[in-house]
């Protein structure tokens, strides 16, 4: 087992454990905050943070499988299916979503944490888990982008997959609001309808921008490698 496989395995276990711990041991009483009220334990799935942590766990598991039975060659003659899946998930979902979740969470947190992660939750949601879900997601995916070569899909394909994912989540939080009467994130409680529309459009724009950032960053990091492959 190589160093890369070991690192991928540790990353996968790290995120799977974070999801497991959150699901089984983080229970926020509804009397402490409404955030813990809707949909019981399965209410974990109302948070984009949890969706993203599951995605990161799945992505790094796929990385391990690719390391063992796929290929890490820059341009294999016949690309294994697992490698194709890996090279599609990072640009389309894993990178932009991890950056989106991390940047929006900490951005709002430092402006007014009560709008995103009220202080009352500290007793129930440990600091280490907060960093697994909102900090390490960015660190691990950046390490992966810098250490593993992949060819980005066309921008049309990448943005279609990402935008579809974000729209599905947007519909999901409105379904939760319709059934429970509460918004998943406290910041939505203080925005009226026009401001919520502007807020959602801004977030969709941010996710799209982060896709482009990942594409450009990948191009910069692997520019020499791409140039050498074109010369073959």
State the low-pLDDT regions, or none: none
Structural class: mainly alpha
What's the rounded overall pLDDT mean?
90
Tell me, briefly, the overall form. Answer: globular
Quaternary state reads single chain
* Count of runs of 4 or more consecutive helical residues: 9
H/E element sequence:
HHHHHHHHH
Number of strands: 0
Helix content: over 70%
Structure in words:
The protein is mainly alpha-helical and 232 residues long. Helix content is 71%, strand content 0%. Helix 2 packs antiparallel against helix 3 and helix 3 crosses helix 6 (155-180). The model has no long low-confidence stretch (mean pLDDT 90).
Question: Mind sketching the topology for me?
Answer:
Elements: H1 3-25, H2 48-69, H3 81-112, H4 127-134, H5 136-147, H6 155-180, H7 186-189, H8 193-221, H9 223-231
Quick recap:
With 232 residues, the chain is mostly helical. Helix content is 71%, strand content 0%.
Top keywords for this entry?
232 residues; mainly alpha; globular
